[in-house]
Design goal:
Helix 2 packs antiparallel against helix 4 (69-95) and helix 5 (103-125) packs across helix 10 (227-246). The longest helix has 38 residues, at 20-57. Strands 1-3-2 form a three-stranded mixed β-sheet. The protein contains eleven helices and three strands; from the N terminus they run αααααααβααββαα. Helix content is 63%, strand content 6%. The two termini are 42 Å apart. By secondary structure, it is mainly α.
Length: 262
């Protein structure tokens, strides 16, 4: 299922002129040719290995180590071809220049903006900077954002992200994102004042682990939220997450609501 979804996304990436049908036809032809070539080479290799194993098995003058030579050769060829297959897939995927952003790619592309905005927000909360200085800093940071096609995320970081989602939770239910972070009576007031003009809501969830005090930032999307709203909410949450790390539970740290509002 995952392989089919990934293949569909890559195929759609190549169809830059809406020629999906033409692309699928060419892909099917190439797959047929590659499969036929691989089948022929596989038959030739299997016959060679069978002949090699048969020669060692029927020769009584061969010792035990010689008899196992065919097995060693078979496994050696299998391991080499498997590694070659994985390397070719890795190189092929690495060459792709996708025009869309997921969470990992958005983090890589917008990391300078996130770090800069978080530093400015913390400086404002500490009274060391005003809003005018923050606006000038943001204008310079926006120039550092690369094109989506120029973003190359780490394969290792993306793999870890699949099993360890991190502290930013996207698409959290309203009952969990609001009711667990504040009293139930304040939830409606918070939604109607803090994010009344937005199609998303960001809250800071308290740590649920007794051995690691790590706060999580929850993102709740409203009905009708677009891809742009989702990206804006993700950047907002990443900035809040960075601020919580710069001000980790210090005595002069502002409340969560004030931290989010800045």
């Amino acid at each position: 299922m995952a392989a089919g979804a990934t293949k569909g996304a890559i195929t759609q990436h190549f169809a830059i002129k809406g020629n999906m049908a033409d692309l699928n036809a060419k892909e099917g032809t190439q797959e047929t040719l590659v499969s036929l070539t691989g089948m022929i080479l596989g038959i030739v290799l299997a016959k060679y290995l069978h002949r090699l194993e048969k020669s060692f098995t029927h020769d009584e003058n061969k010792n035990y180590s010689d008899v196992n030579t065919a097995t060693i050769v078979t496994w050696t060829v299998f391991i080499i071809l498997t590694l070659l297959h994985l390397w070719a897939n890795y190189v092929g995927v690495k060459i792709l220049r996708l025009r869309t952003l997921n969470t990992e790619r958005a983090t890589v592309a917008l990391q300078p903006v996130i770090d800069g905005c978080a530093a400015d927000c913390c400086a404002i909360l500490r009274g060391k900077q005003d809003w005018n200085g923050m606006k000038l800093s943001q204008e310079s940071l926006l120039k550092t954002i690369p094109e989506p096609s120029g973003v190359c995320e780490s394969l290792w970081a993306s793999t870890i992200g699949l099993f360890c989602p991190g502290t930013v939770l996207l698409g959290v239910p309203l009952s969990k994102g609001v009711h667990e972070s504040m009293p139930r009576n304040d939830a409606l007031h918070y939604l109607n004042t803090q994010f009344i003009d937005e199609r998303y809501t960001v809250t800071i969830l308290p740590s649920s682990s007794w051995w690691k005090k790590t706060e999580k930032v929850a993102i709740m999307l409203r009905v009708g939220a677009s891809n742009e709203d989702e990206l804006i909410s993700f950047v907002h949450a990443k900035i809040v997450e960075r601020c919580t790390k710069i001000l980790p539970g210090s005595t002069d740290r502002p409340t969560n609501r004030k931290l989010i509002s800045v």
